[in-house]
Amino acid sequence: MTETDFQDLTDEALRRWGTAHTPRLQELLTGLVRHLHDYAREVNLTEDEWMAAIQWLTRTGQISDDKREEFILASDVLGLSMLVVQLNHDFDPAATPATVLGPFHIDGSPAAPYGFDMSEGIDGVPLFVTGTVTDIAGRALPGAVLDVWQADSDGLYEAQISEAEEARLRAKYETREDGTYCLRSVVPLGYSIPMDGPVGSLITQTDISHYRPAHIHFLIDEPGYRRLITHIFEDGTRYLDNDVVFGTRKELITQFVHHAHGVAPDGTDFDSPYVTAEFNFVLQPE
Q1: CATH 2.60.130.10 fits 80-283, yes or no
Q2: Which of 12, 78, 105, 245 would you call most buried, defined as having the most Cβ atoms within 10 angstroms of its Cβ?
Q3: What residues does each domain of the chain span?
Q4: Which helix (H) or strand (E) holds 183?
Q5: What is the pLDDT of residues 232-285, one digit of tens each?
Q6: Alpha-carbon distance 258 to 127, whole Å?
Q7: What CA–CA distances, in Å, run from 211 to 77, 128, 207, 214, 237?
């Protein structure tokens, strides 16, 4: 087939998909067709390679369920999730930056009072995270809800544990009248993304690190403000510079202070080690 024939085929595909019923859908679909055709020509895609790609996509769909989103993981490791975040969250420099949601968020976490231990019954060094939720002018936002979740010391989220029957390392904390919050958990550890599926199989064919730095997820959806999906990371933890999902932002790195003993932010008197961290969230107005 000549180059002219190639272009004729692409032009005809663009004409057909250009009949989409809204201008935005037309833009999305014709752009997709154009870039897919350009990619196939650029790499001289073979039939065997294309079939392998189709089979990989099929396996990605087959392993996904209501607790595991392998397509989100694929988007994450390709850097696409973080790119879309950056395109859609051009916040004021004073606002807390957004990062990726990840594949393991669960809706409907239980409401938790100030200082509630969302890690009850789970091994690990106690961690208290405190701070405020304000707008970019510094005004406190009372009643703001922080949806929090994290992995355990084995790098597993509740969504990955089939026998988990109750909320595990996740809760929703509400700020007090002065905008302050306090949560109790355990110190998070860096962990590998799931390597038992199509995404992991693909990564094993590269030199890409499959680890994420230690972090805690936060989602704050306050009326009148832009929805914030973000993490906090421990300063100095491993994998900050090569996070497999490209999610690290320097503004989200904070000190984790280690204490041999003492009175924790919730008033608990510890005679053993615990850790504190402080992070102030700043929301972008709509």
Answers
A1: yes
A2: 245
A3: 3-45, 80-283
A4: strand 180-186
A5: 999 999 999 999 999 999 999 999 999 999 999 999 999 999 999 999 999 999
A6: 9
A7: 11, 24, 12, 9, 12
